[in-house]
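In full, the data:

***
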Amino acid sequence: MAVSGFDIDVPRWDQSTFMGRLKHFANITDWRTALLPDSRLDEAKALVESCRAGSVPPGTTEEQLHYAKKLYDSAFHPDTGDRMNLIGRMSFQVPGGMAITGGMLQFYRTVPAVVFWQWVNQSFNALVNYTNRNAASPITPNQIGVAYLTATSTALATAVGLNFYTKRAPPLVARWVPFAAVASANCVNIPMMRQQELLNGIAVTDENGNKLGHSKKAAVKGITQVVISRITMAAPGMSTFQRFKEEGSCRRITFFHGPLQVIMVGASLSLFLSLSFSSMAVSKLEPELRESILCHYGDSVQYVYFNKGL
């Protein structure tokens, strides 16, 4: 069925509800979109821009417009409209994170392996954080370099140090070494890579996506949530896998351990990446922004919404 007068920027699901936000971010983090060629993504962008200009190609259906918007949101920066590099896209986080986290959890016994996988992980994180930065709060190459080196050094120092410390520890304890290194590095990497958001604030909107201003408090809350989610997303896969591995039947099938571990990590990543949207009560915002919202909207806006990132 052809569509005319379609507003492509109206959320497909109700963003004021948890399930609506969950469906929205599950949609744009769909890893299958990472397999599409750039030409297909550019076609989707062209269709989105045509729709915004009020010129929908004849015969275009509503479902085609929804899919084009899905591809656009998954691959193009929301501030600049530029196509993002593949590794930094939301849609690449599940397969990329699965491979790297699985490697860190599987190869943790030797120092060279620890150093290699922690370097790969922090390089991946740095690129993701840079790609998904707030374009309105630019970060300089020096700041990027300092954030990358600091986070990588923190991860390596923690991982190598704990690796030596746990040489005689039970395997269960030793398996938490990569997790401890990732946790400490994320506490450094993310705030430093997104420091401009902490200094200048991030955009907040009402439930319909109307921009209300910028908030530093929202930035602090969002980045804190990102750090916590990055730290905890690997934990379920690690703990569940270790328990399952100790079961008699699974313990004997050693070749199955690696793939199972990666699958469990992927399940955790899929869940947490779908929860990228956050909210905050207007009463908890900065006084100036709170007064501005009350002046323009009265009591009709009780909560603001913002994308906390990955």
